[in-house]
Amino acid sequence: MLEITELAKQSDLMADGEMWFSPTYGNADVHITDLERFAKLVAAKEREACARLCDELVSDENTIEYANGAYRCSVRIREREEA
């Protein structure tokens, strides 16, 4: 959960206790653009985590075909930006 909080801060959201708001829009609730930016950061973090799992498979003692497949998978995950 701490990681999610850090991503929210990176997307310029601010916390007031357990409530989050957008400083761009004064004391208003979080604006959709802030939420979209936050969601993109979360998705990018998840893609990288998945790609790293594939990278680990490449470095494990596997057959060449298996390692090549894992490598191609990690590259494709990193190329993916949005579904």
Textual characterization of the structure:
This protein is mainly alpha-helical and 83 residues long. It has one domain. Helix content is 64%, strand content 7%. The chain is built from three helices and two strands, in the order αββαα. The chain has helices at 2-10, 32-59, 64-79; strands at 14-16, 19-21. The protein has a two-stranded antiparallel ribbon with strand order 1-2. α2 runs antiparallel to α3 (64-79). The longest helix has 28 residues, at 32-59. The chain is elongated and about 55 Å long.
How would you summarize this macromolecular structure in one to three sentences?
With 83 residues, the chain is mainly alpha-helical. The chain has helices at residues 2-10, 32-59, 64-79; strands spanning 14-16, 19-21. The chain has three helices and two strands.
List the topology elements.
Elements: H1 2-10, E1 14-16, E2 19-21, H2 32-59, H3 64-79
Helix pairs in contact: 2-3
Overall shape: elongated
> Taking Cα atoms only, what radius of gyration do you get, to the nearest Å?
18 Å
Strand order of the largest sheet: 1-2
Helix content: 55-70%
Which consecutive residue ranges, at least 5 long each, have pLDDT under 50? none
Oligomer: single chain
DSSP strand tally: 2
**Distance linking N and C termini:** 24 Å
β-strand percent reads: 5-15%
Mean pLDDT across residues: 81
Number of domains: 1
**Largest beta-sheet details:** 2 strands, antiparallel
How many helices in DSSP terms? Answer: 3
The helix/strand order is: HEEHH
Please state the structural category.
Answer: mainly alpha
